[in-house]
Amino acid sequence: MDTFNQTNSSRNVNTTPALNQNMDKIIGLALIVILFITMVSLGCTMEIPKIKNHLTKPKGVAIAVLAQYGIMPLTAFCLAKLFHLGAMESISVLICGCCPGGNISNIFTLALQGDMNLSVVMTMCSTALGLVMMPLLLLVYSLGFPNLVEYVPFIWITLTLILILVPCGIGILINYRVPQYSKIIIQVGLMILLISFVVIAVLAGITGGRKIFSVLSPQLIATAALMPLTGYICGYFLSTLFRMNAPCRRTVSVEVGCQNIQLCSTILKVAFPDEYMGQLYFFPLIYLVFQIVEALIFIVLFRCHQKLRPSQETQVYTAVVPTP
Q1: Contacts of 109 (CB under 8 A, 6+ apart)
Q2: Which parts of 99-216 fold into alpha helices (H)?
Q3: 74 burial class (0-12, 13-18, 19+ CB within 10 angstroms)?
């Protein structure tokens, strides 16, 4: 009986690593598919005439891109130093901070009654510039940590950034040639995105189990909470400093705080060996939760302000104008 139990336990030990490896491959493939769908959907939101209009008057785009690649990488670096994060944790945070803007910012911009054209053009420009800026910023900020540069796979990251431009270009072409299908693709893409993240979370829970909760350390949770909040606030103040109008200020604020989480997760999962990164590719998902929650709080506050402002103006008017 003991021999039988030992045999069964040895089989379980042998089959578990194989199962985990297969699950990791499935998760990696799923992240690539999600990233492809996301970038096609992002491309479908871009209209060539509107892009040309903003590029001919590039002040708003220049300020927005400066905020995107100036504020977020610096914030990630400062928080990693402040909380004394380890090497792999610091890389995860830096990659998240150096990523271009994500297309979820377009939804938030719409809810905040921002400049949708600026939002889309800023997302497009930050994605295109990410091919150069992301490896460069990672190199610069990695030098601030002992022996961190040797762990960063710059070639893999650059190849990933080149590949994401292809589905983005496909989306732009679809929106230009057959614009009637763009809205369908965007809606279907968002649905697939949400479903896929749930599936990935379940698969990762099967393979990682309790290891996933190692990502939920107080330092990383604080970092994930403070990064988008800092981006939202600093983006708004920077655009105010350059005297942009109110809709543009709200747009820049959202664009700076919202990162391309799909790209970050894919890089962390595909470009790094599992023995180095482990379950830290879940950090972007934690960032995503805080990114959405904080944006929703700002949207609710903005909507309340919009509703209260007319009533306040009416009260002032009735107080000033004498009754007959």
Answers
A1: 115, 116, 119, 250, 251, 254, 255
A2: 104-111, 116-142, 154-177, 182-208
A3: middle
Residue whose C-alpha is closest to residue 41's, from 200, 197, 183: 183
Structure tokens at 197: 């993240």
Compute φ and ψ for 174, nearest 5 degrees: -60, -45
Assigned token pair, 222: 């604080």
Number of H helices, E strands in the chain: 13, 0
What tokens were used for 94?
């830096």
* Integer Rg of the chain from CA: 22
* pTM of the predicted model as reported, rounded to 2 decimal places: 0.73
Residue that is written with structure tokens 């379940």 in the block: 202
Q: Could you tell me which of 262, 258, 263 has the C-alpha nearest to residue 231? A: 258
Closest CA to 206 of 26, 7, 72, 34: 26
Amino acid at 82: L
Whole-angstrom distance, CA of residue 243 vs CA of residue 76: 26
Helix ranges restricted to H, the chain: 2-44, 48-56, 59-82, 87-98, 104-111, 116-142, 154-177, 182-208, 218-241, 246-257, 261-270, 274-277, 283-320
pLDDT in tens, 48-102: 777 777 677 777 778 778 888 889 999 999 999 999 988 888 888 998 999 888 7
Gap between the Cα atoms of 204 and 212, Å rounded: 8
Residue 308 — left, alpha, or beta (φ > 0 → left; ψ -120 to 50 → alpha)? Answer: alpha
